[in-house]
Design a protein that fits this description.
about 130 residues; mainly alpha
């Protein structure tokens, strides 16, 4: 019984190491477009099949940038930031603003909408309405 679990662990370790090697080689590329394309390919062909490929690819890229920290040169950081933009383009994601789960950009509410939990813009009116404190 122990043999089967050991073999399974070895397979899992090898598959994880292969994915890490692929992302390392992708991040060593010079052209941001090639980096983004390679990360997209790795994320879409992951064996575990879990999660969103965009988030996976972006996570590999930002994780590399985080681990590099202050040791990353200005040129390398700029190159990786450009790769992030290319990745957003490849996955058809907006470059700014929040997005919904479906990848759509969240629009700002219109100016005609009133603020506050009760829809009142004046806090004094709201307090008068709820004076039973």
């Amino acid at each position: 019984m122990a043999r089967a679990s050991t073999a399974k662990q070895q397979r899992e370790t090898k598959s994880r190491a292969g994915a890490q090697d692929g992302s390392r080689s992708a991040l060593a590329m010079k052209a941001p477009k090639r980096i983004a394309a390679r990360l997209k390919d790795l994320a879409e062909h992951k064996e575990d099949g879990q999660g969103d490929p965009y988030r996976s690819a972006m996570g590999m890229l930002t994780g590399h940038m985080s681990r590099g920290g202050a040791q990353l040169s200005v040129e390398e950081r700029t190159r990786l930031e450009k790769a992030k933009e290319e990745l957003r383009t490849l996955f058809h994601r907006p470059s700014t603003g929040r997005t919904t789960a479906l990848g759509r950009r969240v629009e700002k509410p219109g100016t005609g909408r009133q603020s506050g939990p009760s829809g009142q813009t004046d806090g004094v009116q709201h307090d008068k309405k709820h004076a039973n404190k």
